[in-house]
Amino acid sequence: MREAVFLKRNSERWRSYEEYPTDDPDELTLRFISLTDDLSYARTFYPGSAVLKYLNGLTAQIHRKLYTNRPEDRGRIKTFWIFELPMIYFKARKYLLYAFLVFFVAGLIGALSASKDQTFVRLILGDSYVNTTLENIRKGDPLAIYKSQSQADMFLGITVNNIKVSFAAFVMGVVFSAGTWYMLLQNGIMLGAFQYFFYEKGLLLESVLKIWIHGTLEISAIVVAGAAGMYMGNSVLFPGTFGRLQSFRTGAKTGLKMVIGLVPVFITAGFLESFVTRLTMPVWASLLIIGLSATFVLWYFLIYPWRLFHTDRQIS
């Protein structure tokens, strides 16, 4: 659209933000997301224009107000989970897609490599794991490895390890996203090889019904952490109208919030892996847990942010 039309459609709303300031955290969040969307559009179609400079200033003003003394606001935690974090996921939606595609392709590579090379699974998963699992298959309990530790120790170890992996996937994004790509490829190839190993033994369905009880949340969270790393890495590569350092700070802060938001997901996944995966359950129960987990992932990371954003646009 022409710049004049863009101004005509939005100038009244921008003016209202200046003339009617607010301290309400929810309203500030909605205004900030709305302005960043306008700012992104202006950067694309009107680079170097006066409206771009104006939106930069107004967005920065709202941003400062939004984050100054926010810990003292009532309902700060509620605002973070219900408004701020979902809006961040909406802004990072293309990185969520990129991270998913990288992980998915890596999984296919892992499965294909395992099908072509008999030693590949041992190379990826290790001789100890493969030998133990083969012995468990001979005993008639192929996934007995999930029963080998006490539940409490397993829960703590798995949860801490998963959180460490997610933060590593995020932090490694600082190297122009290359480190994050490596982490996603590594984990995706491992998963693909792992699933093919059970497929080859005729145990694919049994492994899916067991592993994805916790894996649905765990794998999804790793993908989101990868998206956070890409978001930070691209803030360095493509700073836009901001200085590179300022862009990096903003990208790092946003990416860190994305990863912090995953901590409850990893805790839940750790609980499921330690206390539920080891149980012998009917097929419907496994499918119910997997289905509920997948529904939560799709709703909170994709559907709800989309609806929240478009509700805000309609109000604006």
Automatic annotation (TrEMBL):
The chain crosses the membrane at residues 95-114, 165-184, 219-242, 254-272, 284-303. The keyword Transmembrane helix applies. The keyword Transmembrane applies. InterPro entries: SpoIIM-like. Keywords: Membrane, Transmembrane, Transmembrane helix. This is Stage II sporulation protein M. It comes from Dyadobacter helix.
